[in-house]
Amino acid sequence: MISFYLANEAGSARISVLNVKGAVVWQKNLGRLPAGTNNVGWSGLKNLPSGSYHVKLETGSTVSVYKIELR
């Protein structure tokens, strides 16, 4: 599960998981999202090796990137 907080409603959103080389290994268009805490289901352990990844959240003109560890 990937959780994130939005200060304002997002008219459209997309979330991506990137490996350490910057290649997209998973992506999902989320559409409209409400302000507050949002959760997206992701089962990375089923398809990817453990290690460091980045989660990129795009909402309108805002892009946020977070580092995660998959174990």
**CATH class group:** Mainly Beta
With strands numbered from the N-terminus, the spatial order across the biggest sheet is: 3-2-5-6
What sort of overall outline do the alpha carbons produce when their principal axes are compared?
elongated
CATH topology call: Immunoglobulin-like
CATH architecture classification name = Sandwich
Residue-averaged pLDDT: 93
Beginning-to-end CA distance, first to last residue: 13 Å
Percent in strands: over 45%
What is the C-alpha radius of gyration, as a whole number of Å?
Answer: 12 Å
Q: SSE order in H/E notation? A: EEEEHEE
Strand elements, count: 6
**Overall structural domain count:** 1
Name the helicity range: under 10%
How many separate helices? 1
SS-based class: mainly beta
Low-confidence stretches: none
Largest sheet features: 4 strands, antiparallel
Explain what this protein looks like in three dimensions.
By secondary structure, the protein is mainly beta. Helix content is 6%, strand content 56%. The chain has one helix at residues 44-47, and strands at 2-6, 13-18, 24-29, 36-40, 51-59, 62-70. It is elongated, with a radius of gyration of 12 Å. The mean pLDDT is 93.
Give the topology.
Layout: E1 2-6, E2 13-18, E3 24-29, E4 36-40, H1 44-47, E5 51-59, E6 62-70
Antiparallel strand pairs: 1-4, 2-3, 2-5, 5-6
Which features characterize this protein?
single chain, about 70 residues, mainly beta, Immunoglobulin-like, four-stranded antiparallel beta sheet, two-stranded antiparallel sheet, about 55% strand
What is the compact description of this entry?
It contains one helix and six strands; from the N terminus they run ββββαββ.
